[in-house]
Recover the amino acids of this structure.
């Protein structure tokens, strides 16, 4: 009997967590339309990004899915159009693991779009290993943070000219396990897949904080969010099949469905309740307190400067 006690305890804990997550899951109740609005969603071809794209397209927005795979994007666009009836859904190729691709994407946006109302930095990946990109940056850190950082900086002028506009960064509660070591921003001294993911989300939070300070008074807001535990593809790159299956099994049981997980992102994109709120962290359509590191203004300023140096771009200060 004693042999079974740990297993029974574990199962009970998992069930309690599951019930709690379902009962506290927030829902965006705003019926605000998005007709005439232009939205960019990175990683919008699957998971939370796709569900968010469907919701905003249904509200009438022009939705631009920014992702690497043309095939997956085409399939996603077909699904969105079929479900919403909105044909104003498009794909622009973007590989966050290449800063050249980020710059090319932004150049294309400036050539084709007169406005940008909402930028959603949703794309993320886990388990990418310790390799570097052609830009000399750790691949996981670039895909999850440095790429979105450059993308956002390059699109800020268009967001300013389209104000009121919103920037939304999809973070994670995993940020609480991140470390702030300015000698290891690029994971060159030590790393693990877990630390890469946690640090990238912590950095996104700090980027949001500093961005809100820099954009203060011009009607461009920046907020971040934890979507909740969900059945996402973020762990598909974990190479150890046993660990990957264990993680997927637990996540799939505990998860919100993708529609539930997209609700806070939709809320931040459309709700008039947050029109004038910036620099905050949300979960379940409610403002929450992130880690103490995520609220450190001096760390946010220093990280911003270091990030500008690493991506070789300085956001003009007007």
């Amino acid at each position: 009997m004693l042999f079974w006690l740990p297993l029974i305890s574990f199962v009970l804990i998992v069930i309690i967590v599951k019930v709690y997550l379902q009962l506290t899951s927030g829902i965006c109740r705003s019926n605000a339309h998005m007709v005439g609005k232009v939205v960019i969603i990175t990683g919008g071809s699957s998971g939370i990004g796709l569900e968010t794209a469907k919701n905003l397209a249904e509200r009438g927005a022009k939705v631009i899915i920014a992702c690497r795979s043309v095939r997956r994007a085409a399939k996603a666009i077909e699904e969105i159009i079929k479900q919403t009836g909105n044909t104003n859904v498009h794909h622009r190729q973007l590989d966050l693991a290449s800063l050249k691709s980020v710059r090319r994407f932004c150049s294309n946006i400036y050539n084709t779009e007169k406005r940008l109302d909402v930028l959603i930095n949703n794309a993320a990946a886990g388990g990418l290993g310790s390799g570097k990109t052609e830009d000399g940056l750790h691949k996981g850190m670039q895909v999850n943070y440095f790429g979105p950082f450059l993308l956002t900086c390059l699109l800020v002028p268009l967001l300013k000219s389209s104000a009121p506009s919103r920037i939304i960064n999809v973070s994670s509660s995993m940020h609480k396990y991140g470390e702030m070591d300015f000698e290891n921003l690029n994971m060159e001294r030590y790393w693990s897949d877990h630390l890469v993911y946690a640090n990238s989300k912590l950095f996104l939070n700090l980027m949001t904080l500093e961005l809100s300070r820099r954009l203060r008074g011009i009607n461009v807001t920046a907020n971040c969010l934890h979507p909740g535990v969900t059945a996402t593809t973020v762990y598909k790159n974990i190479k150890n099949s046993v660990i990957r299956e264990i993680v997927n099994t637990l996540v799939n049981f505990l998860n919100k469905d993708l529609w539930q997980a997209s609700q806070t992102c939709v809320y931040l994109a459309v709700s008039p309740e947050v029109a004038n709120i910036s620099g905050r962290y949300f979960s379940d359509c409610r403002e929450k307190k992130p880690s103490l590191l995520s609220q450190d203004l001096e760390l946010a300023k220093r990280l911003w400067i270091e990030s500008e140096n690493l991506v070789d771009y300085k956001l003009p200060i007007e």
Notes: Strands lie at 38-42, 62-67, 89-93, 118-121, 165-170, 220-226, 281-283, 286-288. Residues 139-161 form the longest helix (23 residues).
